[in-house]
């Protein structure tokens, strides 16, 4: 049977990997190409590269890094950050990305997901949503979590999937950076609403958090994290062995 | 030299990079002469069957590829490229394929357990159905990366590996010099690279897949 995926996420700014805690206080870790190779050798099932630069120079630096990575790492690569139009899909796919993740771009341009899915196939289009509880409701946030769109998250995700998004990354802003475990309540709600793969993001602090994620929500396909992997708090080989021992099907 | 057939479909960057990584000489080409000169061919493909076949025909490369395969040149189809090796596909209608392998491509929808997600996407274990030289450097049970919503069926004796996703889905096929894999070896880490390495060494093996004496 299909295995559960473990996905390290690399936030890249000006050619370096950074990771925010609750999206602030960015802290540098390492070279993206080196880190990507390392993760691939450790048994990561996929990598996400998130471009958090805004400048054109930064963007060029990012695609250079992506090209370098795709020449030496042979696992699926998903790219996000700054994807606003179809030409952005082309830009990263031609550098070796396999999937493209859209977040704010899909909010600003409602036709983007449909157009991209038609051109590159559903499997290529990932909707990534930053979600936070506001007065008891799940709201979608835009611009790296700085702006409340007021949109109800489950409706938004369902709509994106209906338009052709082939995969969903659910990033809980309430649990992100806190290392207290994934947002199981939110993930349960998303999994009940869509039938495409769901990737859980935000909140992983220890191995048990992944075990709990996959055991309590069997419909979740993958767990994504950044700092716990980058700082060696969780080693991917150990994580996968623990998951296997506890009955979660993973690739060893 | 290995020719990766470029007919305007999908991303050939990783296929080419993976072959270079294992030390093979590879070119992405739509040039008939280059294809005819190549030792081996790779037919990649993503997207919809009808669209990809139409593009292949439009370039005239369908006839070139077919003629080369019929002459005995090793060819490996990857993902949709594998599906195109078959007689036909029932993806949105009924469409003719290259017909290099017996069988047809059908939707998973309605066939596999409705609880399972379609596409079949992610890493799944290979189950070897018969010995083959492509498996020289990999083990039964090794995981590879799949992304597909349709699968090959009625393949007669060409199935050499399957993957379990409710049913045993066709994962790799081989009939003499015509080979194919539903998964993406260029995205399957070391296992995928090792399978490509065996493909690169194909001339060292008899058509039956046995190691030549």
Helix-strand blueprint:
The complex is a heterodimer of chains A (252) and B (213).
Chain A lengths: L4 E9 L2 E6 L2 E5 L3 H11 L4 E5 L4 H17 L4 E4 L5 H8 L5 E4 L1 H5 L3 H9 L4 E10 L2 E6 L4 E6 H11 L3 E6 L11 H10 L4 E4 L5 H10 L5 E4 L1 H4 L5 H10 L7
Parallel strand pairs in A: 1-4, 1-12, 4-5, 5-6, 6-7, 7-10, 10-11, 11-12
Antiparallel strand pairs in A: 1-2, 2-3, 7-8, 8-9
Chain B lengths: L1 E4 L7 H9 L4 E4 L2 H6 L2 E4 L5 H10 L2 H10 L3 E5 L1 H4 L2 E4 L5 E2 L4 E7 L12 E6 L1 E2 L14 E6 L1 E4 L5 E7 L1 E9 L2 E4 L7 H12 L13
Parallel strand pairs in B: 1-2, 1-3, 3-4, 4-14, 5-7
Antiparallel strand pairs in B: 5-6, 7-11, 8-10, 9-12, 12-13, 13-14
Overall CATH class of chain B? Alpha Beta
User: Cα distance, first to last residue of chain B?
Assistant: 24 Å
Compute the separation of the termini of chain A in Å: 14 Å
Low confidence ranges of chain A: 21-26
Which keywords apply here?
heterodimer, A: 252 residues, alpha/beta, TIM Barrel, 8-stranded parallel β-barrel, 10 helices, 27% strand, globular, B: 213 residues, Rossmann fold, 8-stranded mixed beta sheet, 4-stranded mixed beta sheet, 14 strands
